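Hello,

Our lab assistant flagged a job as stuck in the queue for most of the afternoon. It eventually completed. Since we weren't sure the result was trustworthy after the delay, we are filing this so someone can double-check. Below is the sequence as submitted and the structure that was eventually returned. Let us know if re-running is recommended.
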Amino acid sequence: MALNLSQKQEVVAELAEVAAKAHSLVAVEYAGTTVEQMTAMRKKARESGVFLKVAKNTLASRAVGGTEFEVVKDALTGPLLYAFSMEEPGAAGRLIKEFAKTNDKLKARVVSVEGKLLPAAHVDVLASLPTREEALAMLARVLAEPAAMFARAVKAVADKQGGGEVAAEATAEA
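-- returned structure --
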């Protein structure tokens, strides 16, 4: 079904708004994907903060113009499904990688992060990025480790000098 001018303008406006806020973009060939698979992918995308849209490449090219995803304009060929990560950069990569395991017809064509066009193989790298919660947990471990090392060193010195019980009480109070 062909779109009229106002419908095309709505699609471009919607994609432009999403592209302006997105962290990353993965464009995927989806030919041969069943309706059930697409429905499951859309449901999972909503849950993980990924915006999915099938759009004409000319409309998508216009929409990404003026955003950091402008670098992908020349790479948009063939029928593509656009996956924009809205909450964290790796979300679209994880979604596509997960569904590509069960659907061999789903193939990444374009990956873009921070204004850079990356090869399609980088979808695995994008998928391996930690989630926000994982990154915060890593940061907390890094920040807590020096204090833990200091406490172990104080305890080791106290044990070596024979006052392990007194030093353990002192570190517990601190």
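-- support follow-up --
The delay was a queue issue, not a problem with the job. The result is valid. Strands lie at 24-29, 50-54, 80-85, 107-113, 116-118. The chain has a mean pLDDT of 82.
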